[in-house]
Amino acid sequence: MTTRFSCTGCGKCCTDHHVPLTLPEARRWALGGGQVIVLVEAFLRDGEGPSSLRLPADQQEHARRRSLPVLCGQAPAFVSITFAAFNQGRCRNLMADNRCAIYEERPLVCRIYPMEINPHIPLRPEAKECPTEAWDTGLPLIHGGRLVDTELASLIEASRQADRDQIAAKGLICSALGIRTAALKGDGFTTYLPRMDAFLFAMDQVERKGSVLNEEAARDWSLHIPDPELAQRLAQTGAMLEALLSNDCVFISLRRAAA
Ligand code: SF4
Ligand code: SF4
Q1: pTM score, two decimals?
Q2: What is the pLDDT of residues 60-74, one digit of tens each?
Q3: pLDDT number for residue 258
Q4: Cα–Cα distance for residue pair 113/104, rounded to 1 Å
Q5: Closest CA relative to residue 80, chosen from 123, 48, 41, 131
Q6: Where are the domains of the chain?
Q7: Dihedrals φ, ψ of 217, to 5°?
Q8: Do you find a cis peptide bond into 24, omega within 30 degrees of 0?
Q9: Residue of 87, 91, 155 with the most ligand 1 atoms within 8 Å of its CB, for mutation
C-alpha cells in the first residue's frame, strides 16, 4: 500500500499547535520574541499505576530514553519534558498568505509534519490537519510500510535523538525555574508559561555549568492527578501528589480531549 502526500499550504498545522522545539530552537524562539510553553508528563517506574494508563513494554523503552529518572515522593518515575512554541491561534511566523516567514530556519518538527516522531504511533491521515486533497496527490510518502523520503527519515531520527540528548538539560532548566509537577502520562500534561528572560537565563546557566543531572533536579517531583479515585490509588505507590497547582501551571486533560 502507498500513502501519497503533497502539502496544500493550508496553514492549519501552523495554527493552534504548540510546536515542540529542540534546545537551540527554543533559545532562538525566545530570543526572537516568541513564548515557549513547557509541557510535562511522567510515568511510574516498573509499570506501577492504573493499568488503563500503563505503557506497553515496547513503548516504555522509547519513553524512558527521552525521560528523566526522578523521585516523586517515594515513587521512582520518569519525567518527559517538552519545550514548545506557544501557538495559540496562528503561529507568529505564519504570514497572511499562509507561508512561513522563517521557512529556511523553521523548527525540525515543522519540517517533519505530518509524520509522527514517536515510532509507536503510525501515521493516520484522518488524525492530521491536512485536507483530504493533500493525501490524494503528490509523490509516494510511505510505500510498503517504509518512508520513501530518506531525508525526511533522517530529520525524524534527528528529532528523536535530540529528545534523548537534551532531556538532562531540560530537567536542569525546569529545576531552575521551579517546575516540579508533572501529569501522569496518558492522563494529561502540566503546562507552564515561564517568563522568557528567566527561561533564557536558566538555559545560559545550564549551558555554562554543563547538563549533568544532579540530585536536586531529580528529587521532590510530584504528580497532579485531578481524578480523586486515581489519586488515591497512586498515593498507595508512595507517589507525592499535588492537589493544587501553582498559579503558573495549568493542567491539560487528555481524557477530555479524547472524549
Ligand atoms: S514556524 Fe513556520 S512552519 Fe512552523 S508552525 Fe510557525 S509558521 Fe508554521
Ligand atoms: S496542515 Fe498539512 S497540508 Fe496544511 S500546511 Fe500543514 S502540512 Fe501542509
Answers
A1: 0.91
A2: 778 888 999 999 988
A3: 43
A4: 15
A5: 41
A6: 2-258
A7: -70, -20
A8: no
A9: 91
CA nearest ligand 2 atom 7, residue: 7
Q: Could you read off the pLDDT of 142-169 as tens digits, one per residue?
A: 998 889 999 999 999 999 999 999 999 9
CB atoms within 10 A of CB 140: 13
Burial (CB < 10 A; 0-12, 13-18, 19+), residue 94, is middle
Residues whose CB is less than 8 angstroms from the CB of residue 180 and which lie 6 or more positions away in sequence, other chains included: 174, 220, 221, 222
Residue 102 Cβ < 6 Å to ligand 1? yes
Retrieve residue 180's grid coordinates. Answer: 516540579
Write the pLDDT tens digit of every residue in 179-226: 999 999 888 999 999 999 999 999 999 999 876 767 777 888 999 998
**What does the chain come to in residues?**
259
CA 109 to chain centre: 11
